[in-house]
Amino acid sequence: MDRLSNRLLDQPMSLLVTGATGKSGKRVVQHLRAKGIAVRAAARPVFDWTDEGTWDAALEGVRAVYVVQLDGTMLVRPFLERAAQHGVRRIVLASGRGLDDPDYAEDTAGVRPGLVDSEAATRASGLEWTITRPGWFAQNFSEGFFAEGIRAGELRLPGGSAAATFVDAEDIAAVVAAALTEDGHSGQVYELSGPHPVTLAEAVATISEAAGREIRYVPLSPEQYVAELVQQGTSPTDAQAFADLFAAIREGKDAHVSDGVRQALGRPPRTFAEFAHATAAEGGWSTG
């Protein structure tokens, strides 16, 4: 995927994708470009959430924006105000699952207040808006912070034996692309998940079968997980924040199936097995 450059910023474009190098953002760019739609792929250093001086050039000539916010900040509200000044008409916001429940997950990192404010700002923006609330990304196993363990053959996490409905980022991107370019999605909050719950042990076994090599899941207690991360050089605060992410999985709060993919696209989401085999076919878990 192309990174944003000054040359690209000068081109007339109608759609802006922030977080364009992330799991969902880069796929949204791919979906839109595959449809022949002009898209501006915004990424650092040319577009920087923390530097408002980069916002105007990114928004110039844009009519719809996929907003992937910067965790732990409250920048979406002023960004949407700036977007409206530039004539943006449609917003799709990437939010998070369980936001309606303050007890849904531990929030050691302080991410939730920013998400709540972003959703409120989106609803009050006066623009056409859609909010996506995906659960755990399946791509965490191939591109995210599970990937190193998968490639090493042993995934050590404090996820217990409970399940989560991992959602394929390709499905997230398809929903976002539809909401950006089609009518009928305004005012919708799409809760996005996979079609059925999968335990971490089942997920790793599925990947092992698809990759054709032995990979195993080793459940840890939160305390064991924190100790291992600290031993590897992670600060105790960050290690605890990582451990707290898994509380919702351990407590079974991520096992429910949401119908947002079908609601938005009229089809079921991809299964975890489909994700695993497609990723293996693309060499996603190559060890060298």
Automatic annotation (TrEMBL):
<dbReference type="Pfam" id="PF13460">
    <property type="entry name" value="NAD_binding_10"/>
</dbReference>
<dbReference type="InterPro" id="IPR016040">
    <property type="entry name" value="NAD(P)-bd_dom"/>
</dbReference>
<protein>
    <submittedName>
        <fullName>Uncharacterized conserved protein YbjT, contains NAD(P)-binding and DUF2867 domains</fullName>
    </submittedName>
</protein>
<dbReference type="InterPro" id="IPR051604">
    <property type="entry name" value="Ergot_Alk_Oxidoreductase"/>
</dbReference>
<feature type="domain" description="NAD(P)-binding">
    <location>
        <begin position="19"/>
        <end position="182"/>
    </location>
</feature>
<dbReference type="InterPro" id="IPR036291">
    <property type="entry name" value="NAD(P)-bd_dom_sf"/>
</dbReference>
